[in-house]
Structure formats: C-alpha cells, structure tokens
UniProtKB/TrEMBL annotation:
PANTHER family per the UniProt record, alphabetical: GROUP II PYRIDOXAL-5-PHOSPHATE DECARBOXYLASE, MIP05841P
Pfam entry (one): Pyridoxal_deC
Biological process annotations from GO: amino acid metabolic process; carboxylic acid metabolic process
Protein source organism: Metallococcus carri
N6-(pyridoxal phosphate)lysine: residues bearing it: K283
Gene3D superfamilies referenced in this protein's UniProt entry, alphabetically: Aspartate Aminotransferase, domain 1, Type I PLP-dependent aspartate aminotransferase-like (Major domain)
Annotated protein name in UniProt: Aspartate aminotransferase family protein
Cofactor: pyridoxal 5'-phosphate
MF terms (GO), sorted A to Z: aromatic-L-amino-acid decarboxylase activity; pyridoxal phosphate binding; transaminase activity
Family, per entry: Belongs to the group II decarboxylase family.
Stored InterPro entries: Aromatic_deC (IPR010977), PyrdxlP-dep_de-COase (IPR002129), PyrdxlP-dep_Trfase (IPR015424), PyrdxlP-dep_Trfase_major (IPR015421), PyrdxlP-dep_Trfase_small (IPR015422), Pyridoxal-P_BS (IPR021115)
C-alpha cells in the first residue's frame, strides 16, 4: 500500500474527480444526519482484514457517508457560524494533504511556514499590530484562546510574586473562554453588560476594583460575539488594561474578519492595542476547517510560555528559527494556514474585502426584511453579520418544528438559539453565495 501502482493511479484519478465534482456542485445538496443504526446497515462491515479496495471505499463514502454530513457551505446553512471556503482554498487543501509537510518547525517546513507567516502578516496589518508581532495557525478559536491565555498567565507570573488566577470577560464571551479557564484552573469573572451587551472599560474597572485587580492576569474582549455579533468597546477596555497592567486578549474568532471590511472597520477601534488576537479563517475568511490565526504583539512571551523542551527537540529549539509550534498548545502541526494563504495570494485581498462586504449587504437586507414583517422582531440591533430575531407568538417547540421542517425539506439549516431564557431564531451570514432570495424564502416560511 506504499507502492505507486496502476491501481493507485486509477484511484488517484477517481479521488480527484470526486473532489472536482464536489467543488463544482451548484448548489451543493444540504444533506442530513443519519442514525448509527442506518449507517451500520450500509457501512458497519466496511472494515475487514483483507480490505475492500480504494474504489469501493470511495463509493461507500460518496454514496452513504458524505450524504450523512451537512454541507456547511450550502448558501442556506445559516446556523452556528458556517464555513464557506473559496474554491482555491478548498482545492489547495488537497495539495497540503498530498505533500507530507511538517508545519511545526522552520527546519522541516520553511517554505510552508514562510507562506503562513505572510498570511498572518496580512491579518496583523488589519489589526494594526507592529511588524514584530507574530504567531501561528492553530486548529480553532478554542486552542487559540487557550494558548493566548496560557501566555498571559505565564507572563504575569514571571513579572509578579502574586499568583494571579482570574480572567475577566462578559457573559457574551465564547464558551471556549470558560473552557480555557477550566483547563487552566483559572476563575472566569463576568463583567456585567448593559442594554448594548458590550464590555466597557467603565464596567470592567468597577469589577477589577471590587475583586482586586492583582488577582487577574487577563481581560478577554470579544470582537463579534457568537450569538449576537457584538463588538466590545475595545478602546475603553484597552485603557483599563493599560491602567492595571493586564493582558488584553481580543477574541475575533468570528468577527475579526470584519477588519477587512471598510464599512465596519470603525467598530473595532482600539483592537490595535491588544496583546493577543485570534480570528478563525474557517469562519468568515473562507478557509476550510480547521484554521485559526493566533497573533501576539510580543511573540517572545508566547515562545517562553509554550516551547517544549526535550533532548530530542534541542536541534529545533536551540536554533534561532521561527518554529510555529512554539506559540501554542501542541507540538505536531499540519500547515493548516496554507489553503488560506493560497487563496489569499491567488485572489488578492480586495476579493476578500468584497466578499465580506457582500455578506454584510445580505445581512442588512435580512435585518430590514425582518423589521418590515409584522410577525417578526429584531431582538438586538445588528453589528456584524449575525441577526437574532423573534417569531411573535412562537413557543420553543414551534421554532424547533420549523427548523426541523426546513432541514427535512432540504431548503435550509437554521437552528434556534436562546437569549435570557427565550428561544429565538438566528442567522449567521458568512457565505458570499447566500442571496437575498434565500433570506426571503426562509422568512416567508415563518409566516
Ligand atoms: C467559534 C468561536 C470560538 C471557538 O472557535 P473554534 O474554532 O470553534 O474552536 C471562539 N470565540 C468565538 C467568538 C467564536 O465565535
């Protein structure tokens, strides 16, 4: 199975053809999950001592398993945060897979690391971080946030003899912040928010003074909360972090992409003062799963916190090179920033700006359509491309039935969310192929 034979050659053609056909589908089928019992009957016996051969395995995937996976890039997939890779990024993922690149060290992956750093530099420029900033691509926002917070704590503990153990954020911060705190045995302190749902310097300051600022090592501001797309008041939060000497982390996993959209760039004022920042190109920057850009203002602090030391690694860690693995949790890494880099370089950054602006246009249309219909109400004014709204008179069961029906009819995938105990509908629009007509059709289905 390591030899390249005629059979391999034939399978290669079939796999490339499958990938090409999948990429050409317009529209892609939405598809639907199947039960374990259903999949057992079609695939339960697939794993055998003798093997079924590549062609049969591919057919099994194509006919039975792939249709049991939702197409996240379907234009009417508006749940959670979707992912709509560019054709270039999706195709190049195949190349990365075929290339046996180790993305953890410069020694082994210099060319790939160079390219990834070029893509990171573009993001750092959007944020307004200095040239000396840097980081790496990690698997997702969860690992990105955890890695940044570990660096924050290591840095704080190296500077003081107190052992700060707290992180401040709002209730709107992503679940991965609470998860990171659990992993680190840190305490997450929630700063209250007002009507606008934003973290502000003023409220942060009150909490820090009440709780004792020396017990904190980081503040997490969100640039685009997952549920509502709220961007915290980054400038006033930066002021307070500076006043108390606290690490300022900005979680832009979803919303960070908006930095490339001139029409909303002003909402991020103050982001350039962060100590660390993340954005998931697999959300609103059109890269395939899984890809999070993690950046530090001063990467030497991250290197001090994350570099793994062992006799068998000395040859890497004693070199002055840029080793991506030194900036996050984890050692072995796929060069997962390469598909994003390839697409950026192929299409140019203007195409990214245009694609993000297009999703904002459709989000604006959706918000107006919701406001115009008497059976719907916008719950919170839109900041980015997430819209949360109410169907007047519906119970939680009504929302669920409606959502189930859309999936059963294969017209859309829109799951309900909740806020303050109320079940609500929510659109997350990050796919430039989502159209006004898709939105109208879904809203009509709620009449
Ligand atoms: C999605 C998201 C995360 C987590 O990112 P993953 O890539 O799913 O691990 C963190 N923060 C925010 C604001 C998010 O939207």
């Amino acid at each position: 199975m390591h030899e390249y034979t005629e059979v391999t050659e034939q399978l290669g053609r079939q796999i490339l053809q499958y990938a090409q056909e999948r990429l050409a589908l317009d529209p892609v089928p939405l598809d639907r999950p199947r039960t374990v019992a259903e999949l057992d009957t079609v695939a339960g016996e697939a794993l055998t001592a003798g093997g079924i051969g590549g062609e049969a395995a591919l057919q099994l995937f194509e006919n039975e398993l792939a249709p049991a996976c939702l197409s996240i890039d379907h234009p009417s997939y508006l749940s959670f945060i979707p992912c709509a890779p560019t054709r270039e990024a999706a195709m190049f993922d195949l190349v990365v897979g075929a290339s046996s690149i180790y993305g953890g060290s410069w020694l082994e992956g210099a060319g790939a690391v160079y390219a990834e750093n070029q893509a990171l530099r573009w993001i750092a420029g959007l944020v307004g971080l200095p040239k000396s900033s840097g980081g790496s691509f990690v698997q997702g926002g969860t690992i990105g946030n955890l890695s940044a917070l570990v660096t924050a704590r290591e840095t704080a503990r190296a500077r003081t003899t107190t052992r700060p153990y707290r992180v401040a954020a709002t209730v709107g911060s992503h679940s991965s912040i609470a998860s990171a705190c659990r992993v680190m045995d840190a305490e997450l302190v929630q700063v209250p928010v007002g009507e606008d749902l934003r973290l502000t310097g003023e409220r942060l300051r009150e909490v820090l003074i009440d709780e004792g600022p020396e017990s904190f090592f980081a503040v997490v501001a969100t640039a685009g909360t997952t549920n509502f797309g709220v961007v915290d008041d980054l400038a006033s939060v930066a002021d307070v972090c500076e006043e108390f000497g606290l690490w300022f982390h900005v979680d832009g996993a979803y919303g960070g992409a908006g930095l490339a959209a001139p029409s909303i760039r002003g909402r991020y004022a103050g982001v350039e003062r962060c100590d660390s920042f993340i954005v998931d190109p697999h959300k609103w920057l059109f890269a395939p799963f899984d890809c999070c850009a993690l950046l530090y203002r001063d990467p030497t602090l991250a290197r001090a916190a994350h570099t793994q030391h062992a006799s068998y690694l000395d040859v890497l860690t004693e070199a002055p090179d840029w080793n991506p693995t030194d900036y996050s949790i984890g050692l072995t890494r796929r060069a997962r920033g390469l598909p994003f880099w390839f697409s950026l370089v192929s299409n140019g950054t203007d195409a990214y700006t245009a694609a993000i602006e297009r999703t904002l246009e459709v989000a604006d249309f959706a918000e107006q359509e919701i406001a115009r219909r008497d059976y719907l109400q916008v719950v919170h004014e839109r900041t980015l491309s997430v819209i949360v709204f109410r169907r007047v008179g519906w119970s939680p069961a009504d929302y669920q039935r409606w959502s189930d029906r859309l999936l059963a009819e294969q017209t859309a995938f829109v799951v309900p969310t909740s806020h303050d105990g109320e079940t609500l509908a929510r659109f997350a629009i990050v796919n430039p192929r989502t159209t006004e007509a898709d939105i109208t059709r879904i809203l009509d289905s709620m009449a």
